[in-house]
Amino acid sequence: MVAQQSHTEIWELLEQVPDPEVPVISILDLGVVRDVQMLDNNIPEITITPTYTGCPAMDMIEVNIRAVLQEAGYQTVQIKTVLSPAWTSDWLTDSAKQKLKEYGIAPPVGKSSDKSVLFAEDRNIPCPQCDSTNTEVISHFGSTACKALHKCNDCLEPFDYFKCH
Amino acid sequence: MNQKFQYVLHLADNALILGHRLSEWCGHGPVLEQDMAMTNIALDLVGQSRSLYQYAAKLEGKGKTEDDLAYLRDAFDYRNALLVELPNEDFAYTVVRQFLFDVYNYFNYKALTESTDQHLVDIAVKSLKEVTYHLKWSSEWMIRLGDGTDVSHEKIQTALNDYWEYSGELYTPNALEKDLAAQGIAPDLTKIQPLWEERVDLILEQATLQKPSNTWMQSGGKEGVHTEYLGLILTELQYLQRAYPGAEW
Predict the structure, then answer these.
(1) Domain spanning B2-243 has what CATH number?
(2) What's the rounded Cα separation, in Å, for the pair B201 and B90?
(3) What residues 114-143 of chain A have any CB closer than 8 A to a CB of chain B?
(4) How large is the ipTM?
(5) pLDDT, tens digit, 9 for 90 and up, residues A20-58
(6) Could you give phi then psi for residue B35, rounded to 5 degrees?
(7) A8 and A34 fall within a common domain
(8) Which of B135, B139, B13 is nearest to B83 (CA)?
(9) What residues of chain B lie within 8 A of the CB of A119, using their CB?
């Protein structure tokens, strides 16, 4: 019973851990937390997965998870990083996509199972500022590994697009 | 076990050395967007090398870490293909090197997702998503420069002619790769070669570039016989550990 309570509490606490690079969404919104287990002696074990293998935010995410859980009294925290199943932008929650848009980052359009990334025409990503679809890609590689750089031809604002992955 | 360790090292060394080469462009790209593209690709490659070195260290079973493998081996212990250690030269050479490697890397990781080794499958599935973007980037630049101005066409054709003889090593299996392919662990490179040729031909045609006619290919990197460039890369990459052995921060 206590374990069950702790388990629920851990998930609630993790909701408070922001993504270091896009702080408007939590690491739960982002879908990088894959599992929470309670080990003996009330030690939580959190399983996380990187968005991109070279994502430099992973260490920061670990540090932040420990900080939040230690604050709540969990002195020992185990964190496990797994590569499989590989993270996909499909795991972004709907509320995360809404928060991204409000923050000025266009959320991923379509499903990652769509193979259009290789040699298909780029979709017209709606501008997060004015919703126009008259937009174009400036670069497939943006300010972080998970984003591409686009530009709106109507309001002329450049914007980040959270890549389908 | 030792064979698999050597093979995983080969994959890791390819990723680390090419990632390091690309990182040399940081702050020197021809335009800001391409500076960021190259450093993003470098980041992906270094990230992939980290996953691979971690696995290699585990396979070796000597209690080493990924850092030991990256920082404490000399050039003759490195197993990367020669192509990835070649200098950046100008943007055209960098694009050509990336393109020839990306085509191999894409099809190799794709085949590696069918490996009998589950850990390699996990790394391959993850890496393939990233490598797909790399291939798209380098293919687009081959076409843009090849089918661009007279100057850009001439520069990329020259780069292609110069680096072409380093492409064959990528898809030519050595004894180790043949053994591991027979066990279903590594992809069968003789099946990767036609896929590589087909894709390269397709892009060169779109890029209005001439496929180089020379068929003699360099080799040796997979056996630890490198160009002089690798030593120079390592003096920079391993500088801190060489100057202050065991330094941590």
Answers:
(1) 1.20.1260.10
(2) 23
(3) 117-119, 138-143
(4) 0.86
(5) 988 999 999 999 999 999 999 899 999 999 999 888 889
(6) -60, -45
(7) yes
(8) B13
(9) 136, 139
